[in-house]
Amino acid sequence: MKLEIKTNNVNETEAAGAAFAKSLSAGTVVAMYGDLGAGKTAFVRGMAAGLGSSARVTSPTFTIVNEYDGKLPVFHFDMYRLGSADELFDIGWEDYLKRGGICVVEWSENVADAFDGSETIVTIDRLSENERKITVEVAEQ
After folding, report:
1. What pLDDT, on the 0 to 100 scale, is given for residue 141?
2. Which H helix or E strand runs over 30?
3. How far is CA 125 from CA 22, 26, 32, 54, in A?
4. How many other CB atoms are found less than 10 A from the CB of residue 92?
5. Which H or E run includes 98?
6. What is the phi-psi region of residue 92: left when phi exceeds 0, alpha when psi lies from -120 to 50, beta otherwise?
7. Position 7 pLDDT exceeds 80
8. CB 56: neighbour CB atoms within 10 A?
9. Average pLDDT for residues 129-139, to the nearest whole number?
10. Which regions of 47-119 does DSSP assign to beta strands (E)?
11. Number of compact structural domains in the chain
């Protein structure tokens, strides 16, 4: 299944993330793609809010992973600084997968080998200063 959403500002991007998150179940992996500043973290901020978290969502570029509690925990990874899937496994990727939350991975292209084809793909394209096209592709089960 493929779905496209256009947003006109950061609030709409967050709202799209919140709506999307409500459709997710425990154990879902979300591989995110998009250029720097495309709105990936804003979308994740919406996801966390949609799952009931009141946490301050920020990019985990330097911490690699942030955790947000909610109806389902969100494990927010940023692979910008990693060079391979091996480094992701070194920080406990498989342990996070077993914890029953939602694993959201920014800069997924840097760790593509870590995915098994069952992940949901979210691509955010910057169309203008504020407008974004968000494409969600859910893997066939």
Report:
1. 60
2. strand 29-33
3. 22, 27, 11, 27
4. 13
5. helix 93-98
6. left
7. yes
8. 9
9. 94
10. 65-68, 74-78, 102-106
11. 1
- CATH number for the domain that contains residue 13: 3.40.50.300
pLDDT band at 60 (very low <50, low <70, confident <90, very high): confident
User: For the whole prediction, is pTM greater than 0.85?
Assistant: yes
**Which domain, by its residues, includes 35?**
2-137
Tell me how far apart the alpha carbons of residues 75 and 47 are, in angstroms, rounded to a whole number: 11
- DSSP 8-state class, residue 115: -
Given a contact cutoff of 8 angstroms between Cβ atoms, the answer to whether 45 and 74 are in contact is: no
Q: What is the pLDDT of residues 79-124, one digit of tens each?
A: 888 878 888 888 889 999 999 999 999 999 999 988 998 999 999 9
The sheet with strand 29-33 has its strands ordered as 2-7, 132-137, 120-126, 29-33, 102-106, 74-78, 65-68
Phi and psi torsions of 54, nearest 5°? -105, 10
Q: Give the span between the Cα atoms of 24 and 32, in whole angstroms.
A: 15
Tokens of 33: 């793609």
Matching residue, tokens 């799209």: 16
